[in-house]
């Protein structure tokens, strides 16, 4: 797990208050997303996320969420993280994680800090101190407060991560501080591209009545015992999250079975949320229409 790498003793990341970060991460409830959730959240349209913002909230005051980059194909195909110093080579992170800290007593308001890990070879090429990296700027998200300036149904601000405050003060006092700060901000915009929408979609699935299934995975006791003897820290427990599999109107929604739409060509219906009085529900993708009438393909363009 990326969380285990971040909690390792002796972790060194220049310009970062590592002990303070590790102290918070230790207290976090940890969640690992599998590919089923990564695919759905990465492909979810922004209007769908906007519709369910009232259900986007942290399940615990301090949460850690992580996923393998390859388990969210849309991001894996579209992004590189960190500076690119090799003439156009793309550096793919191996795993990406988000530390979310609730602001006050409202689980819909939280601060998020982004971290990721590279292969050892990519870390060396990029000149990093180690395979683990963090963005010096985080985001403050208020899911319950519209932003009239940006005309968004929630407020999202990019702010210095709390573990970089002292370093940023030093940068600002340096002669070339403002220019360096501008570079850091541009890099942060790149690092965060599309990320808030992805994690909000994940939170919506977590809070949907039939969205995500959680399975507690304790760290192996025998392995942690041997690690303790070797002077290594214990591995963390975590919750494995997967998309909940269950029937919903399956017979009516199979291709060729929807009699009310018998003249309609078969076509895929994208996964979406449905809001009911009892809460929000996730409707998986399905095929609607009559196969005998042909198949109508669709393409969705998702902006990052």
End-to-end distance, in Å?
27 Å
Structural domain tally: 2
**H/E element order:** HHEHHEHEEHEEEHHHEHEHEEEEE
Structural class determined from secondary elements: alpha+beta
What's the story with the biggest beta sheet? 9 strands, mixed
Average predicted local confidence, pLDDT: 81
Note the overall shape: globular
What does this structure look like?
The chain has 304 residues and is of the alpha+beta class. The protein folds into 2 domains: 2-217, no CATH class; 246-295, no CATH class. It contains 11 helices and 14 strands. It has helices at 2-6, 18-27, 35-43, 46-51, 73-78, 120-125, 165-173, 177-192, 195-207, 221-229, 250-253, and strands at 29-33, 62-68, 95-103, 106-117, 132-134, 137-142, 155-160, 212-217, 238-243, 265-269, 272-276, 279-283, 286-288, 290-295. The longest helix is centred in the middle third of the chain and has 16 residues, at 177-192. It starts with a helix and ends in a 9-residue tail after the last strand. 27% of the residues are buried.
Please sum up the structure shown:
This protein has 304 residues and is of the alpha+beta class. Helix content is 31%, strand content 28%.
Fill in the keyword field for this structure.
about 300 residues, alpha+beta, 2 domains, nine-stranded mixed β-sheet, three-stranded mixed β-sheet, 11 helices, 14 strands, about 30% strand, globular
């Amino acid at each position: 797990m990326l969380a285990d790498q971040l909690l390792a003793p002796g972790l060194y990341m220049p310009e970062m208050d590592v002990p303070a970060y590790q102290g918070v991460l230790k207290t976090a409830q940890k969640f690992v997303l599998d590919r089923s959730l990564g695919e759905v959240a990465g492909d979810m349209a922004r209007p769908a996320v906007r519709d369910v913002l009232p259900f986007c909230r942290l399940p615990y005051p301090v949460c850690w969420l992580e996923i393998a980059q390859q388990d969210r194909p849309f991001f894996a195909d579209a992004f590189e993280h960190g500076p690119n110093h090799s003439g156009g080579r793309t550096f793919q992170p191996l795993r990406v994680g988000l530390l979310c800290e609730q602001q006050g007593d409202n689980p819909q308001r939280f601060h998020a800090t982004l971290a990721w890990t590279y292969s050892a070879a990519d870390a060396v090429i990029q000149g990093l101190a180690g395979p683990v990296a963090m963005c010096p700027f985080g985001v403050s998200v208020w899911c319950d407060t519209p932003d009239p300036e940006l005309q968004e149904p929630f407020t999202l601000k990019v702010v210095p991560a709390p573990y970089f405050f002292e370093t940023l003060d030093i940068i600002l006092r340096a002669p070339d501080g403002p220019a360096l700060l501008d570079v850091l901000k541009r890099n942060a915009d790149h690092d965060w591209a599309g990320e808030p929408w992805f994690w909000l979609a994940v939170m919506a699935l977590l809070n949907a009545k039939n969205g995500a299934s959680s399975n507690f995975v304790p760290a192996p006791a025998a392995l942690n015992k041997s690690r303790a003897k070797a002077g290594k820290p214990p591995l963390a427990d975590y919750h494995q999250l997967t998309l909940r599999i269950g029937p919903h109107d399956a017979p009516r929604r199979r291709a060729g079975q929807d009699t009310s739409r018998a003249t309609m060509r078969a076509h895929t219906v994208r996964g979406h949320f449905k809001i009911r009085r009892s809460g929000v529900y996730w409707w998986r993708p399905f095929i609607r229409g009559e196969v005998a009438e042909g198949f109508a393909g669709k393409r969705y363009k998702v902006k990052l």
